[in-house]
């Protein structure tokens, strides 16, 4: 009996010794990981700061190339990840958006410019802007309702409700950002083609009192009258425009100045209706999110490449 007890004790001591050896091996394997993790965090912070400075300088010195590269990355980077993850719903909406926007952009870059093209362009991007705004707000509301447990009233699983809300929020923000950048590009092409606006210098044509400087078409509704389809807006510089044209120019095309004389436009004064102001704030939010959508994946990939070269895991 004593011999059996001694054998059991020896077995326990042997197992304990093996555990100590395995623990020592694991400790030796992970030795120095704390310093390695600190180094990786430092690399990430430094890269983010340097990248932000470089992007700001690039945008200030060469805005056209910056906007073009940013637009291309916003269009392609999500496509790569969603194709890899087999998100077919997003790919379907991306394809429909790309086909329609490509046709609209083609119309906007033609010379001579058809008289119906500016209104077609502004209406499409204004519609896209409003749809993305409503989709993003609805998705955010679903996420908040899920966090407060309201989804349980309708017997919807939290993971299903959260997935639905986050998906809608992603759709709204992504197409909102992408649509605004395409709208700005089309606005520049059309304005230079019409001839009333130039990036620098004086306008190349004289503007008549009853002509809209954005689309070049006559204004049929007086500023003091209520239009059936759209109204007429007068800026602080006394130049008048079609409602759809100036909305597309200022909100969608991100041009906060008069298309003719370049006087700064006060959007809060221009859109005095409180229900219209959220569209202005939403546009500013999209400008801030552009960095996260277009450049953040590239910066993170660059950081991972640095870590791989330095042998950091």
UniProtKB/TrEMBL annotation:
GO terms for cellular component: endoplasmic reticulum membrane; Golgi membrane. Keywords: Membrane, Metal-binding, Transmembrane, Transmembrane helix, Zinc, Zinc-finger. It is found in: Membrane. It is a multi-pass membrane protein. It comes from the Eukaryota. One of its GO terms (biological process) is ERAD pathway. Residues 212-262 form the RING-type domain. InterPro entries: RNF121/RNF175, Znf_RING, Znf_RING/FYVE/PHD. CDD domains: RING-H2_RNF121-like (cd16475). Its main location: membrane. PROSITE patterns: ZF_RING_2 (PS50089). One of its GO terms (molecular function) is ubiquitin protein ligase activity. The chain crosses the membrane at residues 40-58, 65-81, 87-106, 127-154. PANTHER family: E3 UBIQUITIN LIGASE RNF121 (PTHR13407:SF1), RNF121 PROTEIN (PTHR13407). This is RING-type domain-containing protein. It comes from Poecilia mexicana.
């Amino acid at each position: 009996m004593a011999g059996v007890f001694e054998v059991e004790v020896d077995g326990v001591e042997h197992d304990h010794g093996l555990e100590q050896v395995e623990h020592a091996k694991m400790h030796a394997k992970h030795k120095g990981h704390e310093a390695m993790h600190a180094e990786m965090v430092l690399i990430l912070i430094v890269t983010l700061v340097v990248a932000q400075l470089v992007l700001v300088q690039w945008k200030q010195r060469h805005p056209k190339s910056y906007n073009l590269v940013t637009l291309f990355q916003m269009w392609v980077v999500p496509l790569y990840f969603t194709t890899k993850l087999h998100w077919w719903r997003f790919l379907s909406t991306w394809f429909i958006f790309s086909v329609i926007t490509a046709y609209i952009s083609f119309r906007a870059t033609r010379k001579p410019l058809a008289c119906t093209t500016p209104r077609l362009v502004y209406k499409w991007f204004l519609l896209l802007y409003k749809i993305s705004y409503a989709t993003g707000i609805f998705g955010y509301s679903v996420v908040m309702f899920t966090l407060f447990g309201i989804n349980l009233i309708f017997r919807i699983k939290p993971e299903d409700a959260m997935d639905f809300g986050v998906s809608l929020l992603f759709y709204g923000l992504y197409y909102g950002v992408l649509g605004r950048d395409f709208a700005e590009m089309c606005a520049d092409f059309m304005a230079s083609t019409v001839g009333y606006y130039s990036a620098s210098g004086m306008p190349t044509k004289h503007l008549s009192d009853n002509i809209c400087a954005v689309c070049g078409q006559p204004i049929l509704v007086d500023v003091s009258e209520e239009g059936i389809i759209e109204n007429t807006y007068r800026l602080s510089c006394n130049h008048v425009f079609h409602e759809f044209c100036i909305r597309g120019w200022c909100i969608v095309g991100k041009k906060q100045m008069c298309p003719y004389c370049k006087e700064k436009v006060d959007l809060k004064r221009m859109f005095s209706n409180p229900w219209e102001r959220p569209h202005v704030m939403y546009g500013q939010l999209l400008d801030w999110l552009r960095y996260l959508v277009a450049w953040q994946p590239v910066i993170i990939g660059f950081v991972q490449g640095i870590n791989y070269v330095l042998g950091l895991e």
